[in-house]
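Subject: mismatched residue count in predicted assembly?

I count 459 residues in my input, but I want to confirm that the predicted structure covers every chain. Input:
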Amino acid sequence: MSQPSLPGGNPKPPEHINNAHNAPVKDLLLLATGVLLALLLATLVLAYSARWIAPFIPYQWERDLFNDAHVPFEQSSAEDTANTENDAQADAKQQALQQLMERLTAHQPDRLPVTVHYLSDMDIPNAFATLGGHVFVSAGLLRTVDSENGLAMVMAHEYSHVQQRHPLKLALEQLTVSMMISLVTGDTAGLAQLTSSVTLLSFSRDMERDADRDALLMLQQHYGHTQGAEEFFEKMLDQHGESRWQTVFQTHPMTSERLAVIAKQKQVTSSKAQLTALPSELQIKSHFLNTGKANKETE
Amino acid sequence: MGELLFQIGLFLGMLSLGYLFGRRNERKHYRSIQAREDELRSLLVLSTKIPPRSMLSHSSEMVSGSVVISVDYFKTVVAGLRSLVGGRVGAYESLLDRGRREAILRMQQEAKTLGADAVLNLKLETSRIGDNAGKGLGSIEVLAYGTAMIPTRASAPDNR
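Triage response: the counts match. Full output below for your records.
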């Protein structure tokens, strides 16, 4: 029985077999570019398809999923705003706004139900539509417009966003992008936060244009003319003017551009069109005088 | 925008720091490993369980060596990207290679102080330590252990 002889010493391990990590930077760059390109492509495809998919999602699902209106702004406490209305007044305003919305949309084909909310603490003239068919109107907006037509234009505009499913399209796009990001970073907590953050959406310029177009049609249908549609935009132009910077970066079409569209539409309508006064519930004290004046001018 | 730039800058900074220091450490470590391997080459390490005939009258003792090495940021990023597409994770291969060889060296060191001339039945174990790098590997521990064969008077060559 021959005993195999013991080796004289330990072998020298070849360095290139278990340690072949020779070009780590090349490795990283190759992987990073490949993965980034693939993700970018997937994101683009998915985000783009979101626009196609959104209209096929039943509106009722959207309503049910987002039935609690999530006010995306901090409501200021009662003390620090002198002109805060009491709850009853705000409720009356909200109801009046809802009724105005119902009247405006009554004859729309495939009418979608929307819920109007009144932001009594918000002094900035503003209105927006969010997921689930919630339309918000600020107290500042009521102060800014002179006639019901001006207000109706803004509300019809927001309704058109809902009608064209713009909030859902944007939400799907954002969801896609966030999903991709959390896929890369492995951060799934970010995805859970997402549903609460999509309430503030900024529509693209094309979406705003489409909404403007439909809103003008709605006004034409409801009042028989589009007088007063420019009110809000004209006021905004007076207050802020427009800088070149805004025209490049703003998502809303330029205010003056929108005014031009409205003016074009107006030429078609008869000149003796009458502006409708704001319903009394929607008038805010400091503006009684202005509304009177506006009515006189058009007479 | 500024926040984003800061994040990207931080990422790239950590990436290059991880690369520079990680690479430097790895080179240094390999040089040290090779030098000590040369030194301890005559202290045999075998995976056999059965002692060779020449060591039948040796006394034996368990020896072990363990090492903990941290992953650097660069390696984590490369491995993270690798996990998306699959394939060899070269960045971790060299890390574990260093760990194994260092652990064996430490075990040999212990055997040497006992006066052993060989370590039999070599076993290696690897484990990941803690979640100290989020989803990354964090640190690795490599443990090497075996039976040190220590020559006794009875096993001296002239008595055989």
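Chain B touches chain A at residues 19, 23, 30, 37, 40-45, 52-54, 74, 77-78, 80-82, 84-85, 88, 90-91, 93-94, 97-98, 101, 118, 135 (CB under 8 Å). Marking this ticket as 'not a bug'.
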